[in-house]
Amino acid sequence: MLSHEEARRKVIEQVGKMGGPHARASVSVWDALGLVLAQEVKTDRDYPPFDRSTRDGYAVCSRDVKAGAQLKCAGEIKAGDTVTEPLAAGTCVQIMTGAAVPSGADAVIMIEYTQRDGELVRFERAAQAGQNIVPRGSEAQAGQTVLKPGMRLGFAELALAAQVGAVQLQCAKRPQVAILSTGDEVVLIDQQPGPFQIRNSNTVSLAAQVRIAGGEPVVLGNAADRAEDLGEKIERGLKKDALVLTGGVSMGKYDLVESVLKALGAEFFFDAVAIRPGKPAVFAICQGKPVFGLPGNPVSTMVTFQLFVTPAIDLLSGAEGHSLPLVEARLGEALNERPGLAHFLPARIEWRGAEPGVKALKWQGSGDIAALAGANCFLVVPAGREKIATGERVSVWLRKDVV
Ligand code: AMP
Ligand code: MG
User: Fold this and answer.
1) Staple 379 to which of 82, 197, 243, 345, CB 3.0 to 4.6 Å?
2) What is the CATH number of the domain that holds 246?
3) Phi then psi dihedrals of residue 39, to 5 deg
4) Residues in CB range of 354: below 8 A, 6 or more apart
């Protein structure tokens, strides 16, 4: 059985071969949050475009300013002013944050370290060349590539595009991810379930996870535990960029997902992973599309989606598929787990002391959505570990949507 790292690598290897993105669109920076860039963005000029003061104070020639020096103030420059005149020898000018430093000046002294007496400015401290000035072109030079294809556009990336005037961006279209639940016990979420039925909450979590991962969810509804119905709906799902199924992958008599996929020509890369929850997770390529058969228990569905489907959506969008982003924290309460499988325990991480601390939450196993809804992370217990003492360092996988 593969470890979750190996299984994730398999997904990255196989979906990586499909070479995304397959479709692009021109998108306004206002609408591009979370999309993957499909072009290079170059600067239109130097950044900053002039030597920029980072403080309110006085622009000086550093040679003129020893501690206690006095200079005549020859004027004022505010942000946005056109600056062409050089600093006259033996003078200073008052300057504001964001304003252009005149030629001849090589330092800005913060106003806090000066005293003004009419036209005269007295400096408490010696100046150092370069102080409080960001030189022209030091952030980026004209024509330099500042954003590359494959980068996911967050707020900083969008601000950078806006700064250089790239107001329309070629982006990968969100891959369409079909979502199909299975099971005779499953009813629509706005239906009253019978005493032994359950609402289809997995399609809701999956649709949300697809969105967060950068895909566009296409909810196909629910397939009965019958090969014909399942087969028909799977074929519909295979028309999208990827297909995610939930339920029907365990060992039960009515767990038909694998056999139906096989009949449709699927090639399987794993059909079990050494994790709890989520052990029966399946990954296959069927008719050229990645297909994920996730277990039906809701927490298993959520964990296996994050582990295996998220990197596939990255790759289908032209971004990189990266390994699991883990952080370390001190265990707040000792653990005693069954060894053999890696465990992903709903947990809470807090940043109170010098180091983050984490505690697993009480839960009833992989059906317990309520426990996960109070968790902001998963505590990752490696397959070999059984007892972990309070105070040990453990790996934590943050829930990106709530932290
Ligand atoms: P399965 O993997 O098909 O054996 O399903 C395991 C359990 O997961 C079922 O007994 C249900 O309690 C639950 N389950 C399956 N499908 C869903 C769904 N779409 N939404 C919520 N819970 C589900
Ligand atoms: Mg089922």
Assistant:
1) 345
2) 3.40.980.10
3) -150, 170
4) none
Ligand nearest the Cα of residue 246 is 1
297 ligand 1 Cβ < 6 A: yes
Ligand 1 site, residue 295, Cβ cutoff 6 A:
yes
Q: Do 293 and 341 reside in the same domain of the chain? A: no
What gap in Å lies between CA 356 and CA 346, rounded to an integer? 16
pLDDT in tens, the chain (403 residues): 999 999 999 999 999 999 889 899 999 999 999 999 999 999 999 999 999 999 999 999 999 999 999 999 999 999 999 999 999 999 999 999 999 999 999 999 999 999 999 999 999 999 999 999 999 999 999 999 999 999 999 999 999 999 999 999 999 999 999 999 999 999 999 999 999 999 999 999 999 999 999 999 999 999 999 999 999 999 999 999 999 999 999 999 999 999 999 999 999 999 999 999 999 999 999 999 999 999 999 999 999 999 999 999 999 999 999 999 999 999 999 999 999 999 999 999 999 989 999 999 999 999 999 999 999 999 999 999 999 999 999 999 999 999 9
DSSP string, 268-281: EEES-BSEES-TT-
Q: Is 141 contained in some domain?
A: no
In eight-state DSSP terms, residue 112 is: G
**Which pair of tokens denotes residue 1?**
């059985």
Q: Is 143 within the bounds of a domain?
A: no
The residues with which 398 forms a beta bridge, in sequence order, are 377
pTM across the whole model: 0.94
Does residue 183 line the site of ligand 1, with CB under 6 A?
yes
Number of domains forming the structure of the chain: 4
- Residue 256 Cα to ligand 2 midpoint, Å, equals 9
Question: Ligand 1 pocket, 202 CB below 6 A?
Answer: yes
Q: Are residues 181 and 167 in the same domain?
A: no
